[in-house]
Amino acid sequence: MKLELIKSDDPRLKQVCEEVVDFENKQFYLELINEIKKLCIEQYAFAAAAPQFGINKRFIVMVSAVEKKVRNIQELQQFEDHYETTIYFNPRITLMRGLTYYYEACMSTGEVIGKVARPHYIEFDYQDIDGNSLHRSAEGFEARCFCHEIDHLDGIEFLDKAEDITYNADLNKRIEVRNKYPQKTISTDCEFDQSGINPEFRTKIYIKK
Ligand SMILES: [Zn+2]
User: Scanning 2, 52, 124, 187, which has its CA 20 to 30 A from the CA of 98?
Assistant: First the structure.
């Protein structure tokens, strides 16, 4: 299986993805997880979403949700990570709280970095690889990773809502920016306000019927 990483100008990244229903194809997804994991590690990415590979399905793969506090590429290469890779099918955010800022990047946009407002805490429903319905929460850096990837499933890229964007930011530059502006938590419990974000780029909240 060879994955094709598609780039920002590809219309497939702007689509709203379809629900996953084919849980009988477990073997296919297991192979896919493996390929996505390899690519993420190679690219120092924390996670990825199906549409980044031209796959129109609602799933994300979390490879590492540990913020890598390093000063340079050498330290990044030596960073010990445990890579507990997990796939989340049909993730739906049910609650967002608090406010944090951090500089995000993405495999699809390449050498770009920009500041994005995200909730400090989220709760979401999802299905595991066997199709079981589950619910979990995440906070801080991990919540940010989930929000970034879940946005991809709705055709939203981080650049759609980023401020203070730096282009031509290679890996060195991205490390430098993140050292200069570490993740900033404004509040852990305020209501996450998306009024400053263009309505079409707001992270979708699923309301249970
Ligand atoms: Zn991304």
Answer: 52
Indicate the residue type of 158: F
For the chain, the domain total comes to 1
* pLDDT, averaged across the chain: 94
Q: Among residues 183, 181, 179, 107, which one has the least CA distance to residue 148?
A: 107
Q: Would you name the residues annotated as active-site residues?
A: 149
Residue 106 CA, ligand 1 centroid: distance in Å = 4
Residues 6+ apart with CB under 8 A from 55: none
How far is the C-alpha of 86 from the C-alpha of 142, rounded, in Å?
13
154 lies in some domain: yes
How much is the pTM? 0.95
Domain of 17 in residue numbering reads as 11-199
DSSP state of 179: H
Segment 105-126, tens digit of pLDDT: 999 999 999 999 999 999 999 9
The C-alpha atoms of residue 90 and residue 18 are separated, in whole angstroms, by: 9
Whole-number Å distance, alpha carbon 200 to ligand 1 midpoint, is 17
